[in-house]
Each structure stands twice: as C-alpha cells, then as structure tokens.
C-alpha cells in the first residue's frame, strides 16, 4: 500500500452543515506525539514499569507464500487486500510478515506503530521496490520522477517541486471549494451505503476515492466540477478512472510473474491502457 509523498492539508471540523475551515483561514492540525520508545514496548495490559521484550525479525508471525498466493488468487482477495488485512490482524495481531512475489513485507496494523515508523524515517524516504515502474519508464524513454526515484535525486526533485506547491496560507484559500467537494462526497457515500445489500457498506472504496480525488483536483485547477460524485458520471471520466484502476491491477498481477514475462509483454500492453 504505497503512499504518495505529498503535503497533507488537514481541515478541522467546525460543526454540522458548515465548511471544514472558514475562508482564508490557515489549516492546522494537532498531531499527537509519537509513542516514546519506553512506552512502545510495553504490553497493552502490563503494569507500570513492566516492559515487553522486543521481538527479532524471526519471531514475527509470518504467512507462507503458498497460503498467501492461494488467498489472493483462489479465494479472490487480490483486489480486496484491505479485507484480508482485517483477517490477518485478528489472527496475528498488529504486526506480521508476508511475501509479495520476491518481496518480503512487514505489515503494521496499528496507528501508533505506523506513526513511529514514519517519524523515524530519515531525510530520504525508503520506498517499496519500484522495479516494474522503472522498467516501464525505461522502455518508453521516460525519466524517473519523484514517485520512482530515491535518495539524493529524489530530494533534489522534491526541493524543486516545493517551490511550485501551494503554501499553507495559499492552500487555505481553497477551503470553500474543497469543502464543497467533501460535502458531495459524504452525500454520495451515504447513498452507496443505503443502496448496498447490508445497508451500511460500500463495496469499492478505492474507486470512490479515485472519483473524490479527481473531482477535487479538477475543481481547484480548472474551477469546474466534472461530475465524479454524481449518480450519472460522464463517460470520459469513467474511462479515465477505470484506466488508473487497471494500471494498479496490472501492477499487482505483474508482481507475481517472472521478470522476463512482463518485460517482454510490457511494450505491447502498457500498464494503463485498457
């Protein structure tokens, strides 16, 4: 589950029926302090002063590769990884290991643990393996961007982008527009929940977030709503969002294939082409 390294704007809720921030206000958020190292190792029910011994990598619960493969492609969890993670957390606790193709992953299902990891990250971010994306860009003679490069080169690109990104004071000027999209998003979310079989579940949150992000970005860039959150979505918008989803799906499947397989097929089947 990758996270794009972008500046995050957090808006404080001010009351029912109102925007998240007044027009022109600076958006701020109180981020809770990360758990101190002496607290992070305490057992949840342990008494004061009793510390849990830190486990080594070999002691972390792990999934067998064949079992994980079976659950992904036979039981159908390949495109529903969030549901599989809920099951794993209930079985293994807040931390477990899994293998995605040749890659080993340590999974965290705890907000305090994840906060510790992110706060302890160094000057340059350490990302997941991007071999598939890099190969695609190499074959199309495209340079690496901030999403695929790492280290000092990433830092140089990020520094250049920072000059063009909205500063907090300027970004706050768009709160009214952003809140308008959020209101429509919440309305659409309630509609989909009411229409579901259970009456309280949205079957494809990822797609709904694609629509939300595209609607918000286009409204800010072009000062125009494109209808992503309406009941009847324009066909061009549907095609664009579907292509993005197809790209991520193909990336997931290609991860489990031998490198020679997708390296040969990539020129005739670009990642995002439907």
UniProtKB/TrEMBL annotation:
One of its GO terms (cellular component) is mitochondrial inner membrane. It comes from the Eukaryota. This is Cytochrome P450 family 27 subfamily A member 1. One of its GO terms (molecular function) is iron ion binding. SUPFAM superfamilies: Cytochrome P450. The keyword Oxidoreductase applies. InterPro entries: CYP11_CYP27_families (IPR050479), Cyt_P450 (IPR001128), Cyt_P450_sf (IPR036396). PANTHER family: CYTOCHROME P450, CYTOCHROME P450 FAMILY 27 SUBFAMILY A MEMBER 1. Its cofactor is heme. Belongs to the cytochrome P450 family. Pfam families: p450. Keywords: Heme, Iron, Metal-binding, Monooxygenase, Oxidoreductase, Transit peptide.
